[in-house]
User: Fold these one by one.
Assistant:
Number 1:
Amino acid sequence: MIAPAIPIPRSMNTVIFRELGLIDYKEAWDYQEQVFNEIVAQKTANRDLADTDKKQTGNVLLFCEHPHVYTLGKSGEEQHLLLTEEGLKAHAATFYKINRGGRHYLSRPRATGRLPDPGSG
């Protein structure tokens, strides 16, 4: 279960911090896409509103940990992944094709990373 948002006041902006805990990579990815799409939808809706009626989208910061995962970006090729399906299972790792740039990437538990905030700009 995903924890509720905790707003953190920061000058005139708000950062919405969400701790997702230990979560499968794909589940976290799908949730990030959902948050992004909600922000884009609100910004699109704001275009047709008077300034006084526009809704703030805020800034979202997601923290999570997931088990070993290999990702393959748009410019990657599957033959560069040197593990078979059995090898992935032996390492308790999963593999996902993703829609980002880059080739391939291994992410291990307890690794930290930050993705660009879809609400900024």
Note: The longest strand covers residues 13-22.
Number 2:
Amino acid sequence: MNVTSYDRTVIVKHLKENLGHPDEGWSNEGGPDRIRVARFPDQPWEGINTFATDGLSSHLLSMGQDVGTARMEVLFAAYPRYSSEAIAGFVLSFCDFVLSKHWAFVSGEIVGPYKWPIIEGVELNAVYSAPFTYFEDNLHFCPGTSPPTVICWVLPIHAAEAAYIRKHGHEAFDNLVEANDPDLWDLNRESVV
């Protein structure tokens, strides 16, 4: 028998243990199953805002044929000069997209490019499920739910970067990012390809 369990407080505790205490939050209109986005200042280091969801993991999401299901929450990080409200709005919209597909956004996957930027006034128009290079290792995985919840870093990217990943694979892109060391918190950064 496959037993599943979910408790929002487990996710919230996990986020606070790894990111500290949030200073602001937003939510969609979903009743008790609503998705919330919290802003954690100075994470993963000073001068960066990290946004994390709780509530998405109340849904079991498909990981593909013959792979099974997973629980997922979303992480997004940027400099404070970008509108927190706009970022939270994008994150909530992205969660709505994930739920509409009932699909887990796993490492190396891309969504977009869109015809418009992910947030008004920035250049990036696609997102990539990035490896957790800059965040604490413990943050990536929350074992307190069944199945465990994976925290997915949604990294904004350029259309050209999305095309590169589709052609050469996500590992080649990760190597480019490591070699070029772009400012990933800057939503108007130059493309690495």
Note: The beta strands are 24-27, 36-41, 49-54, 61-62, 69-78, 110-111, 126-130, 141-142, 149-157.
Number 3:
Amino acid sequence: MAHEIMFDPADPLLARVRAIAMALPAAREEVSHGRPALFTTKVFAYDAGTPKEEHVTGVHPQRLTVLLDPDERLAMLEEGAIAPAYLAPYGWIAVELEDADRISARRPRRSPRCRPSPPPWSPHPAAARS
């Protein structure tokens, strides 16, 4: 049984998310359970995210659901992110797209785990520890 489409393909916030996501190498989008899912080799984001209370009532606000490291997940939950039904036990969080700019303005632009390692010949102190 196919799920009903639960998003507006012309939505400007979704277009902004798509533009960022599709800039990644080999990124693609597929509709999964009625909502866009963004992939490379694995899913990295869903245009969805409802806690169980909203899910059973049929409310589907515009949220982006992503998988984070445990410490980042806790920080985002403290900032107002929610634990989405079904995916929360696996470490996923959801952020209201309307609030994303407000939250990201207070968060570092780059997670430390995403920073490239300095080359071994670098005088950077982190290179000496490797």
Note: The longest helix spans residues 12-22.
